[in-house]
Write a structure and sequence with these properties.
This protein is an alpha+beta fold. Strands 1-2-6-3-4-5 form a six-stranded antiparallel sheet, with no helix packed on it. A hairpin with a 6-residue loop joins strand 4 and strand 5. The longest helix is centred in the first third of the chain and has 25 residues. The protein is elongated and about 60 Å long. It starts with a helix and ends with a strand. Its EC number is 3.4.21.89.
Length: 129
């Protein structure tokens, strides 16, 4: 019984170390996410695994990003369709939209919120399975 418990603990520990190693390597709090909806079809389908990275370069129009809305736990995978850079603070204002959606994501953001910011982004999509 002790041997089975130790094997189980080693498997869990190994998985956590791999996850943390990927998080450090990709500079993303969540290096792998699952697509939960069909809003990005035909680029990504429900159940696809996305590999993320958080590069140092700024976000650009056309990038597919995973972001979280403050106060909500579920990440959203959508494409950047519009950017606005504030000159004084260099802060980026980002507008997103799902490829399969008719309108932009302002309806998904918190009430009164018209843009997301780089700190809301979990990572850029680097690959998928």
């Amino acid at each position: 019984l002790a041997m089975q418990v130790l094997n189980f603990v080693m498997i869990i520990s190994s998985a956590l170390m791999v996850w943390k190693g990927l998080a450090l390597y990709t500079n993303s709090e969540s290096p792998i996410v699952v697509v939960l909806s069909g809003s990005m079809e035909p680029a990504f389908y429900r159940g696809d695994l996305l590999f993320l990275g958080m590069p140092d370069e700024p976000v650009r129009v056309g990038d597919i990003v995973v972001f979280k809305i403050p106060g909500r736990d579920v990440p959203i995978v959508h494409r950047v369709i519009k950017l606005h850079d504030e000159r004084d603070t260099s802060k980026q204002f980002i507008l997103t939209k799902g490829d399969n959606n008719q309108v932009d994501d302002r309806g998904l953001y918190n009430p009164g919120q018209l843009w997301i910011h780089k700190e809301d982004i979990v990572g850029k999509v680097r690959g998928c399975v």
